[in-house]
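Box 3.1 A note on notation
Throughout this textbook, protein chains are presented in two layers. The first layer is the amino acid sequence; the second is a token string describing backbone geometry. Keep the layers aligned when reading.
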Amino acid sequence: MKTKLLASALAVVAAAPTLSAAQGRKLTMAEAVELALKQNRNLKIARLGVEEAQEKKVSARSQYFPTLSNSTILSHITELQNIDIPAGSFGRVPGVGGLPQRALSIDQGKTTLVISGTSLTQPLTQLLRIHYANKAAEADVASSKDEVRKAEVEVALKVHEMYYALLVAQLNRQAAQQQAQYAEEDLRENANDVEHGAALKVIEISSRAGLLESKQTLLTVDLQIDDLNTQFNDLLGLPLDTKLELDPAVNTNVSLPVKDRCLTTAWANNPEIRSAEDTLRKASAGVAAARTKYIPDITTFARYSYQDGVPFLVHNFGTFGVSMEYDIFDFGRRRAEVRQEQIQLREAEENLQRLKDEVAVQVEQSYNKLQRTKDMVEVAQQMADLRTESERLASNQLKQGVVLVSDQRKASAEVYQAKADLLQADLAYVLARAELDRVIGVVSSF
């Protein structure tokens, strides 16, 4: 009986002319999830974050290798100090006279200098620090991927919410239409009774107010459907004016998973927990990298130089050797940096434990919600059965002339509302399972 009622309700949704578009886009639940995962802008931004982190990792890895660089300087000196040699300052030679015979001025290079050097340097002791920097870059890449996974499960859950909300709104519109038809028939009957003196005027006024309320409800549902359609288009990355035609054949036969297995899976797959673990690894690498600053920076180098304008140096020459740089005293800077990294490591450890506790609470809440919504489905099913039986009796009594047309209309409206409530309960149960999947880090596609 439940299957027949649900199939009838979904068939009504499929036939509902709620989206008056000349050309709409048909979507199943699986297609909607796939489309959102492909086109949602938040996901695109998150995936670009992964690419950015990967490029940073490549940049960090390049520091392992030698660096070839060139430095060229072109400068002009306003004035040079020359070497002046007075005449005869070297003594006198018989028959020649004083040496030199006249005063001399020797230039000290050129006023325009060109100095160019190409160097090849290879860090040695810095390789330890570079190693830990690469570990941190790897953790950033993994964390960015976890952010993508988190966005994916959240988008998948949002797709389920919007999809189900649209289906329920469409069925609610049918129920509102039935209620409006009942209100019109009730007003017609009461107006006829008032005209023949069988009822008071106040009854007609009350019926007219009920009709206006039904029309107002119908307009509200129409507005809700338009808003949901626009929001859903934005979520799927479609033009906002796209008219969606949803497939009402939603699978509501969702199994109840084992509770202990859910918690184990959540601790292993939840994106926030995995991101916290990556942050912990990055903080650990930061502590190790900060400690390497106590090691002197030793670098080997080889340089080929060219100069034009400096006296007593050849134009082309080479140099090679080893350089060392070490801060003998830094007023506690390195020690403070190590302590800062250690504090961040402890913060990462506490944050990881906090998230595990929060996920355990979320699993408990989601699991309890899943069980409660399952009970709500059973209650809604019983109500739908009663309303269906009531409509059947009202139809029989109408044929026998025992009840009025308005009574039969009212019974039909109550059946539609009961079917809408049953559908909403079923979809709430499926949505509760989707929420549980989000907590445990699984993309729901049912």
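Confidence is low (pLDDT under 50) at residues 1-7, 9-22. Strands lie at 25-27, 67-76, 83-85, 92-93, 97-98, 104-106, 112-123, 244-246, 297-308, 316-325.
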